[in-house]
Amino acid sequence: MVRKTIVHTPFGKKTLIGEEDRGKVYYYTEGKLKGLVGRVPKDVEHFMPRPSLKNMALRFRAHQIAYLLFPEWNLRPKRFIPETKEIITQHVLRSKQNIRMATSRRETARQKKVNYPPEAVAPLKKMRLAGIDIQTGKQNVSVVNGKPTFFAVGGINPKMLRKYIAQTQITPTRKTAVLKAIELYNQLDRMSDLDVDEHYLGIQD
Fold it and tell me: What are the boundaries of each domain within the chain?
């Protein structure tokens, strides 16, 4: 089981509620972010791409786009904390299976023996066809009352997304919001890692 770890931050006190090879998941119990969830990457050398500030900022934008287009299946991102590369999202109910996989190394090791939730297959395919890269690890999806929620958005394909938006009936307000988010993603993607560091943290070479 994951050891109960309490961390004090400028945004409030948070408790470790899940851990995997690539990152840790915290629940904020006090402070400005009380009731929200933070996902912090681990800097593990054999995983690519490495969790640079730019990569995590892009992932945050990808989460925003996924939520704007498919709010029924994705977490609502609330903010990005560059100092810790932490993505803050709403807290959602999780299935017992998902909780076991996120908190037990034994369960994580046995993931291959667990079937992918059938309720998640069709939404997963639809989002991928739209241009959203959903990470498919079984610990990255939870099904409660027949409704799947995906926790890990790896990135987006702007060209595929624009094509999907052009062919799909969505409200003008939401369309404007999604296109703006895609443009912000593209702007960030064009920046160098050093420029991103300076933009978010004021770090100069």
Answer: 6-200
- Which long-range contacts link 171-175 to residues 24+ away (Cβ below 8 Å)? 174/68, 174/69
Write phi, then psi, for 143 (nearest 5 degrees).
-120, 120
The angle that helices 118-130 and 53-69 make with each other, rounded to 10 degrees, is 110
pTM of the model: 0.85
Cα dihedral 105/88/131/126 (nearest 10): 70
Amino acid, res. 155: G
Q: Which residues have CB under 8 Å from 66's CB, separation 6+?
A: 73, 74, 127, 132, 134, 150, 153, 156
The span from the CA of 194 to the CA of 84, in Å, is: 16
Q: Is 77 helix (H, G, I), strand (E, B) or coil?
A: strand
Q: How far is CA 10 from the centre of its chain?
A: 22
pLDDT tens for 55-68 read 999 999 999 999 99
pLDDT band at 146 (very low <50, low <70, confident <90, very high): confident
CATH code linked to domain 6-200: 3.30.200.20
